[in-house]
Design goal:
The complex is a heterodimer of chains A (160) and B (544).
Chain A lengths: L3 H19 L6 H12 L4 H11 L3 H8 L13 E6 L2 H19 L5 E2 L5 E6 L11 E3 L2 E3 L7 H6 L4
Parallel strand pairs in A: 1-3
Antiparallel strand pairs in A: 1-4, 2-3, 4-5
Chain B lengths: L5 E6 L2 H5 L2 H14 L6 E6 L11 E4 L3 E3 L7 H11 L15 H9 L22 H6 L4 H9 L2 H11 L11 H9 L7 E6 L8 H8 L1 H15 L3 E6 L4 H16 L15 E6 L9 H8 L23 E5 H13 L1 H4 L10 E8 L5 E6 L4 H8 L9 E6 L6 E3 L9 H6 L8 E6 L4 H15 L5 H18 L5 H17 L3 H6 L1 H9 L1 H10 L15
Parallel strand pairs in B: 1-2, 5-6, 5-8, 6-7, 9-13
Antiparallel strand pairs in B: 1-3, 3-4, 9-10, 11-12, 11-13
Helix pairs in contact in B: 2-3, 6-10, 6-13, 7-8, 7-10, 9-10, 9-11, 10-13, 17-18, 18-19, 19-21
The chains are: A alpha+beta (160), B alpha/beta (544).
Amino acid sequence: MTSKNEKDRLIIEAIDSAIDHFGDSREELIPILNHVNRKLGYLPSEALEEISNRLKSSRSQLFSVASFYHMLSTKPRGKHVIQFCESAPCHIVGGREVWQALKEAVNLEENETSPDGKWSLITTSCLGLCGVGPVIVIDDDAYGNVTPEQIKDILAKYSD
Amino acid sequence: MKSVRSMVLVSSDPISMERGAEQVYANLKTEIETLGLSDEISLTMIGDVGRHDALPFVIIYPEATIYGPVKPENAQHLVEEHLYKGRVVHELQASHKELTGKIAWVNARKGTLPAEQRIVLQRVGIIDPENIEEYIINDGYQALGKVLSEMSPRDVIEEVKASGLRGRGGAGFPTGLKWGFVSGTPAKKKYVICNGDESEPGTFKDRLILEGDPHSIIEAMSIAAYAVGANEGFIYIRGEYMLAQERLKKAIKQAYEYGILGEKIFGSDFNFDIHVHSGAGAYICGEETALIESIEGKRGEPRARPPYPTTHGLWGKPTLVNNVETLANIPAILRNGGKWYRNFGTRSSPGTKVYTILGNVNVTGLIEVPMGITLREVIAIYAKGMKRDVSFKVAQTGGSSGSIIPASLQDTPMDFDSFQNAGVSLGSGALLICDENTCVLDLAKVLQNFFKKESCGKCNPCRIGNERAYQILENISQGTGTMQDLDDLAMISKNLFELSNCGLGQTAGSPIRDILNHYRAEVEAHIRLKVCPSGVCPMSGKRL
């Protein structure tokens, strides 16, 4: 378990590097949130509070932006995030069966995180990889032409 | 087989032979040897290529450039320019008219596939996208140079109007007209935005343009900025497209180093800066006013229109927003003229269109073909037919806001007006081709689920309508639908179209409208017989 101080330090570090990179103007809010979200895995409320101080804009405004975009999360996510594309091009070439296999393999329903914090299973709209559907993305790795039989082998790569 | 950089094919059917194809071949061989290129280029005599007006042909791959008729005395020029310097010899290219419509179909039946017509994708896959010099060698920044040294902003807009180019984002609005609106507003500060928030399911053409030819977008935006009087531009790229963002950033840096961006470009009085802005995962940000809100750092909720962005856009200033594919046409139009552009496509929709082919077909991927080609041609020629010998049932164009196209419309030319007259829409250029094992109700459910999740929630018809429509479709698929549900769906579809604030809501009703128009019997079977004719729907008998 990371201690409170350790967590605070990580948050400050992530925000510092974001503001170094993008500056502290209100217009750069989305790139800053994106950056912090990538560093920390999600946007803890302490981080939103700190960003609101630095950018001199209200927390409600920040929260409204942070909760709007799919790539930003205000809740903690698992160590590995599995994104399953549920749009039509993947659906009609076998996506349905892959989704069933995926849910069974990690024992989760849509938008759930496993109790041990290893997996989050989320559905997403088209990722622009439709030429090789069905597509799943785990963290930053994309897998195309996925079949239900392959799911076990793919997940086994994330053994840590 | 040893690997070569280019493959040169010379036609050798009887007509070509009579017109000196053998001498063309011999001269090409000599020239290639003289320049010491024999190791990197293969030269082959091939048979009949199926077109008889411009023989003999010389076809050069991987670009698939078709030259014809080629005379023996052209060989030296062709080898020097195309194979040695890497420049296409436009005056020797075969005319394009054969590549459209029925003749393409005839050629396909003879087993000779026509090449695609590539304008937007002309360099994609051929040049190194991270090297500005390769772009410059392939006609790059020529159009910008011509515009800044020889043309007034008004000339540029007239040329774009003359080309008849229409927006490729889905709506098909005439591009020249839009430029004229922005140019006509008397503001000091204006912006140009390239909309690269491509999120329509099944569409990835913009990603390939941004990744494969990033400088073409920089050149096009600079031309647009000069024409409308802007000096700052934004490229908004969806957050998931990391590689495209990196490529653009790199390309912009190179352009600054070469003096193509920045101040006093090419020695003129024109200054222009471009920024890359990343999205954060929201389909709605492809809508131009939502995109503007997002660049301003807010929730991507569409604004009420009017006023339009052409007068009140980014930070309240007049703003030109164009789609990636639309912009990628611009350099070629300025280089060759608006009249040249009208050689391709149909009268009302000139030019080419990039399509993504998906679904139950043998070959999926990206093609660029003239406007007006038919779905039958796409399936037979480019997709190489349906998979596993099952028949074609339904196609879905333009991602989720496109239309469901029944097989009966597969001979309708695909251009903006022909499709509109047939009551369907071309959308953003995805062609999702489904076979007879697809249940249209299940397909509509997936599309409706997309809108339900991607609605920004700002206006009621869209937020509530999509949720309700999805529930009804779900009930029908569970075998618990009623005939009243069909009337409710029709009403929701109508309300979405008439009452929603933005384009997302206005098109969200089209899947249900289309299945009720074209596949009512199949939908009714789910309700009256409690049977899914394709055996896809669960039919659990549980009403939600």
